[in-house]
Amino acid sequence: MSEVPVKLTDVESRMQKAVEATQQNFNTVRTGRASASLLDRIMVEYYGAPTPLKSLANVTTPDASTIAIQPFDRSSMALIERAIAESDVGLTPNNDGSSIRLNIPPLTTERRKELVKTVAKLAEEGKVAIRNVRRDAIDSTRKQEKAKEISEDEAKKLHDQIDKLTEKYIKNVDRILAEKEKEISTV
């Protein structure tokens, strides 16, 4: 019976990871303001190996509408430029010989609506991940109950605790979704 509390902390940690993954996905959605996290998923083909952009360059935001990329190795400049151009960020890199600049154009109303739909979809994926963790945990407690490892009362108590955790983490996803939607909608 000592397995019970460990399992709840495991369930909670898995739900927390789902929320964090959702937050990271939100960070890669462009809002109209420059943010270095827009480039988090960009991989550069460097010496034959896909390498994260952040490992090859210093990424800064000198102002609200510009991202500056200062490569550590100038010979990687063209590779970085190509990786950004081929990515799904939708920005055109400007190479001035020593650094690459990305100008973030203001978002149109139509594009803002599309981005709100995109983050809503990402949030739903996060909620589904949380519900999957819940389902696995409930299944596990049912198996323990059938195997007589825990009593029916303990199983019911665990189910209630798992449901409370699920509600809590789904509310977290809703909260970060509301923040992101506000950020996107703010002109």
Description:
This protein is α+β, with helices and mostly antiparallel strands. The protein folds into two domains: 3-27 and 108-185, Ribosome-recycling factor (Topoisomerase I, Chain A, domain 4), CATH 1.10.132.20; 36-103, Gyrase A, domain 2, CATH 3.30.1360. Helix content is 59%, strand content 15%. The protein is built from five helices and six strands, in the order αββαββαββαα. It has helices spanning 3-27, 53-56, 77-86, 109-146, 152-185, and strands at 43-46, 49-52, 57-63, 66-71, 93-95, 100-103. The protein has a four-stranded antiparallel beta sheet. A hairpin with a 4-residue loop joins β5 and β6 (100-103). α1 (3-27) packs antiparallel against α4 (109-146) and α4 runs antiparallel to α5. The chain starts with a helix and ends with a helix. Mean pLDDT is 88; it is low at 1-6.
What is the C-level CATH assignment of the largest domain? Mainly Alpha
* CATH-scheme architecture of the largest domain: Orthogonal Bundle
- Beta content: 5-15%
Mean pLDDT: 88
Main sheet?
Answer: 4 strands, antiparallel
**Tally of contiguous helical segments:** 5
How would you describe the oligomerization state of the chains in this entry? single chain
Shape call: elongated
Per DSSP E runs of 2 or more residues, the count of β-strands stands at 6
SS class: alpha+beta
Radius of gyration: 22 Å
Please tell me the total number of domains.
Answer: 2
Taken in chain order, the helices and strands follow as: HEEHEEHEEHH
Task: Report helical residue fraction.
Answer: 55-70%
Distance between the termini: 55 Å
Uncertain segments: 1-6
Q: Assign the CATH superfamily of the largest domain.
A: Ribosome-recycling factor
Q: Could you give the order of strands across the largest sheet?
A: 3-4-6-5
CATH topology of the largest domain: Topoisomerase I, Chain A, domain 4
